[in-house]
Structure formats: C-alpha cells, structure tokens
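Consider this today:
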Amino acid sequence: MFVLPAEWAEQDCVQLTWPHAATDWAYMLPEITDVYIRMAAEIAKREKLLIVAPDADALDDVVERICEEAPGCDIMVVECPTDDTWARDHGFITLVSPDGSKRRLDFCFNGWGDKFEADNDNAINRNLYDMEVIDGEYESHLDFVLEGGAIESDGQGTIFTTSQCLLAPNRNQPLGKEEIENELKRRLHAKRIVWLDHGTLIGDDTDGHIDTLVRIAPDDTLLYIGCDDADDEQYQELCAMEQELKALRTADGKPYRLLRLPTPAPIVIDGERLPATYANFLIINNAVLVPTYGQPETDRKAVEIIAEAFPDREMVEIDSIQIIRQHGSIHCCTMQFPK
C-alpha cells in the first residue's frame, strides 16, 4: 500500500542543508548564502522549512533575513554535522500509504560513488530521526547506494532512472542492471522501472542524475532538456535521449506528453563548462522554483514551458548562476517531505 509520491503531491516541509565555511562553498560563502536565503524564503512562504547546519546559533541572522521576506513562516533549524549541502541526495526518501502512514527510507549516500567525503551527510537522516525531528517509520537501506536525484516517481508505481548513474562505478557493484531493478522495485514498492540509457551533461558529478535531464509532471507529462546546436558537445547524447522518450509508453501503453526544455548557452567559469539545466526545478505547495541562468530569452522560454506543465502553480524564478558553480541547481539543494 506504500508508494513513492509524485513531487507535486502536497508537502509538509522542505529540507535545506545549509552552506558553511567547511564546505566547498567556502570561497563564495556570501554569494551562495544570499541564494539560499532567497530559496528558503520562497519555500517558507508556502510551507514549513527545515534547515540542517553544524552550528545552529550561527544562523540567527539568516533566519531573521528569511523571516523578513516570509513573515509568519515556520522554520526549524537543527544542529547536525554536515559535509556539504546536497539535501536531494542525502535526504530521506519518503513512502506514504493511503492512510497517511510514512516510511522514511535512509539510503547510503557515498558522495556519488566515492568522489567526495560524505560520512557526515550519510548520517544526517539517522540524526534527524533520533532527535525526533522527522516522524514516521524509519527504514535503514544503508546497504544500498541511492541518491534522491537519481529517481523520479509518477506516484503510481513507475520510477524513472538512468543506467549511466545507477550502473556507475562504486555504487552497488557487483549487482547488475536486472538485480538493481529488482532492488528498486522492492525497496521503493515500485511496479515498473523505466531506464534511460542516454543523456549526460558536461561537468555533472552525479553520473547522469535523472533530475538534470527528465522530470515527470501531471497527466503523463515528461519535461526534458533538448539541444538544437549540432556543435554542442552534448548534442548527440541529448538527441538520443529524446528519441528514447518518444518511444516510451506509460503503464497503460500510451505515449507520454513531451515538453521540451531549452538548454542554456554554455556557462564556462575558469575554463570549466558547468552543467546548467532547466530540468532541475523544485515543485513546492502552490509554486515551482525555476532555475534561471542570466539568459533572458532562454530563461523566459523555460519558465513558460514549465508553467504549461503546472498551470495551477506560480512560477518563481531563482537565479542559479551561483549554485551551478558547484555543479548543481535548485532541486539538488532541496528535499521535500510529503504530507
């Protein structure tokens, strides 16, 4: 009876794991703090906000600034050791049942295949649960590596993922694709796993998370990033992914409704191309936080297309240039908890 809800289901709160001087944000801490405050305020206007940080007292001014933008907001700051800030990938994955019961699934987060230190982040969920910050039934899945950004759910038992991520080194070897699919079905109570074998962004540390490429929306809609520039290094892979999506069918055997998002013009800082993507938006109660990249025409087009998929929600633009400098965007920074 338990299912992984679609992200547009009503939410209880959203988690942000806050940047601090011991993270990779140290060299640009004031800039990224401003962006996090903007995200936090937009979330707090609409639902509860959970902030995880190693020093709660150090965030007094931050909370005050958020409350100035979101008067009457409900914010909880929880003190807990952290390595970094990517709540999407170290946060609880929550299953719900029709009677409102919740199961909080705590998967292993190992820094995207042992690329980065992650011991503190991997312990956040257990710490939150032991402090009774999070309710529901705790389930340890620490024997299986899975990041929240690697999966998308339609709320009806279908899970989307990518083979380039879940089959990447240092995740769940020696398990093969069929074994991993069976584990996903068992652990997430899924009926069907849809694998995408193409699509990658230059500069992506995650080995191709689905939330950078394809997102599920109501009415069997898929929002995905496309590319029209044949000279772009990502062109061939994104075209191949587009053909995969056109061939997909729903559980009822019908084609998906496809909405094609633009790809931002390359953003290069210090000679490195960054993985900017409009697919990394965050759905919250009554709104969608949409990443923008200082490209007015392309930004506007992306917002219009996402609004077409979520006509009942306000589109809130968040300048994500600073976030993308650490190879992520809005969805990567956040984890929602369904009501």
